[in-house]
Every structure is written in C-alpha cells, then in structure tokens.
Amino acid sequence: MNRQPISGASAGAGCGRGGAPLRALVLGALLVLVTACGGGDSDKDGDGKGNKDGGKVGNAASQAVVTIVPKDGADSVATSGALKVTAAKGKLTTVTVQDDKGAPIEGKLAADGASWQPLQHLAGSTKYKVHAVAKDEDGRESAKDTSFTTLVPKNTFIGQYSPEDGSTVGVGMPVSINFTRGITDPGAVERAIKVTAEPSVPVEGHWFGNDRLDFRPEKYWAAGTKVTVKLNLDGVEGRPGVYGKQSKTVKFTVGRSQVSTVDAKAHRMKVVRDGKQIKNVPITAGAPSTTTYNGQMVISEKYKVTRMNGATVGFGGEYDIKDVPHAMRLSNSGTFIHGNYWASSGTFGSANVSHGCVGLRDARGAGDSSTPAAWFFDSSIVGDVVIVKNSKDKQISPENGLNGWNMSWAEWTK
C-alpha cells in the first residue's frame, strides 16, 4: 500500500519538535540583554552601591553647625565678652550683627573660619540681631539667626569733654575728658574713644589719675586741622557694675596758630602768629615771693571781667578784686594772664609785682580797646599757647590745666 505523508500534520509535528530550542535561545538572549540594561540603571553611580559620588547625595543637609552665644531670646546680656559665633564641621562665611536701629557691629573672623568675635563692646539696654552662615567641605550652607538684649545698667558714668562741638580753638588745645566716676578699667574706656585729625597725625591719650583722659598729637596741631572725637562709651564697664551711657561725636577746628612767649626776667611778651611776630608787649609777672610758673600753658577760659579772690587759691585775704578785666585762665590753680588797672603804667615792662599771674596794662571796666590787655584778649582764643620762661619758679605740672605739652612724647605715650 502506498502511503503518502500528510503535509499539514507532518509540517506541524516537525515544526513543534524543532521550534522549542530556538525560542529558548531567543528568549535567553533577550533576558541577557534586559538584565544587562537593568543592571546599568541600578548602579548609576558606578561604585557598585548605586551612588556615583561614593554615597554622597547632592541634596543632603549641610554638615556645618553654627553656634551663637548668647542663646536666642536671652536678656540682661553683658556688653563685653558675651557675644561669640562659632562653626563646627565647616567654616563661617558671613556674620552680621546689628542693633535695633540697624547700626552694624564690627567683628573679626578667625583665620580658620571657626569663630567670630566683635571688635567693640555692645551698648546697654539694646536688642541685637545676629545672622551667621557657614559652609561645610562640600560647599553646602547652614545658617542661623538669633536675637538678644543687653543688660540695663543700674550705675552709669559720662565723660565731660572739651573743647565744645563746632568750636574753633588754638593750636595747643588738647581733647580733655573728665569722667563723672573714677575709672578702674582705663583700657576699656580709652579703646571706646577715637580721636582723628585731618590732615592725619598720630593722636594719643594720657591719663591723669583715674578720672581724666587727655588726647594730643606729638607737637601742636597744625593751623586749619579738623579734629573728630567719637565717644562710644555706651555699654563700657568703666568700673565694676558702672557703665558708660554716652554715644556722641564731637568735631572742632584748629584756627590760626598763635603762640605767645612771656619772658619773666625781661618783663616782655612776644606774640607770634602763623610764624611771624606781631606784637611785643610789656608785662608784669609774679613777684619774688609769688613767682609765676614756667612752662607751656594753654588758655582754657576767657572772661571779659571776673572776680579774683586770693582766698580761693591759698593767699588768704591778700587780695579780692571784683572786676579784673580781660582775664584768661592758664591753670586750674589760679594762674591767669589778665588786665591790670591798679598798678602804675611804669610797672609793665620793668617789674614783677603779681601773685603769680601775668599782667598787662588795662583800664578799669575793660572798656578801653586801645590797651595792651584788651588787644591781647581780642586777639586770643581758647587753645592758644602762652609760654613762660626765665621765672624763678618750677615748671607747671602737666595736669594743672590743659598743660600736657610739658611732658615729652615718650612720657605722654608710655
């Protein structure tokens, strides 16, 4: 019997037995391909752990930690030594401190960026805001904002200063500040006072006792100099528990230069203005028993007419003149250069008869503008220098009046 194969069944059977291995091979290849692609997606960072930067995540928080002392909301904070900003695991990049009026407080950032401290004391009874920013080693920033309020002082002091704001003075005028309380921390107080000059010249302070601080340059001011005094005493602890309460700027101008030299032996006074002698005036100085101090003295006060009573300066009842004309103070102890109407005109230029003052011929009542005393009074301003020489007395003490010029620069600055 001739048998013919059934092409449909035979093809189907043949196709079934030979197709299975091929499909497996194709599926396997696809699986390998999919697995390879999937494996690349799951290890984007190429370190076998799923992070290309070795586990560092770009949006992670900064590691830097900013600390501000005193804590946020603190009150009764000390005006010195309390404020400090630090950074751990990073470096400070910005620190700003402002008072409640928006005025900034200058500070110093440590070279390593780890800390910041103010360069000045803080004011009392004042609220401060602090803003600080630090960066970690990857440049991520961490910021902190706080506020605090300083203590309210129970005991205070101020500085009574001369010359006055806006005044024009002579070349010998120092800045003199008398404090209403004795100072036991002179360094803190002196650092809070800044005296600058234009044109610029070094200006240094010197303490007379614990309640007076004077400032001057090495030599007399140059004519035309403009001087600025900044009293930043608010919050300075001048003595334990006693704080300054003054914040003020004072400005004055140095006028023309006038230096007058009294020769007590020759009984004459030469007046030199801007380097040129303009007058040679006959005078009378202190009598042999009441001589006039030698030295550089500065006019500190002017009175067209004043009373002079010997009892106030240790001379008992030797004199009491109620109308001394054209008087200008040279010392705290009572030395004046003034008009004299009671001595004969021949006394001036020939004899020394006063109780220690320098006298010039004058008229009673200060009404005669032609007298030497009137001329000198009208030609002088506070801060002008009067030098006395050849008197048989000692040199005046630097603290006796505004007379620190009698100290050398080395003595003044030590």
UniProtKB/TrEMBL annotation:
<keyword id="KW-0133">Cell shape</keyword>
<dbReference type="Pfam" id="PF17964">
    <property type="entry name" value="Big_10"/>
</dbReference>
<dbReference type="InterPro" id="IPR050979">
    <property type="entry name" value="LD-transpeptidase"/>
</dbReference>
<feature type="active site" description="Nucleophile">
    <location>
        <position position="357"/>
    </location>
</feature>
<keyword id="KW-0961">Cell wall biogenesis/degradation</keyword>
<protein>
    <submittedName>
        <fullName>Ig-like domain-containing protein</fullName>
    </submittedName>
</protein>
<dbReference type="InterPro" id="IPR038063">
    <property type="entry name" value="Transpep_catalytic_dom"/>
</dbReference>
<dbReference type="InterPro" id="IPR005490">
    <property type="entry name" value="LD_TPept_cat_dom"/>
</dbReference>
<feature type="active site" description="Proton donor/acceptor">
    <location>
        <position position="338"/>
    </location>
</feature>
<keyword id="KW-0012">Acyltransferase</keyword>
<dbReference type="Pfam" id="PF03734">
    <property type="entry name" value="YkuD"/>
</dbReference>
<keyword id="KW-0573">Peptidoglycan synthesis</keyword>
<keyword id="KW-0808">Transferase</keyword>
<comment type="pathway">
    <text>Cell wall biogenesis; peptidoglycan biosynthesis.</text>
</comment>
<feature type="domain" description="L,D-TPase catalytic">
    <location>
        <begin position="258"/>
        <end position="389"/>
    </location>
</feature>
<dbReference type="InterPro" id="IPR041280">
    <property type="entry name" value="Big_10"/>
</dbReference>
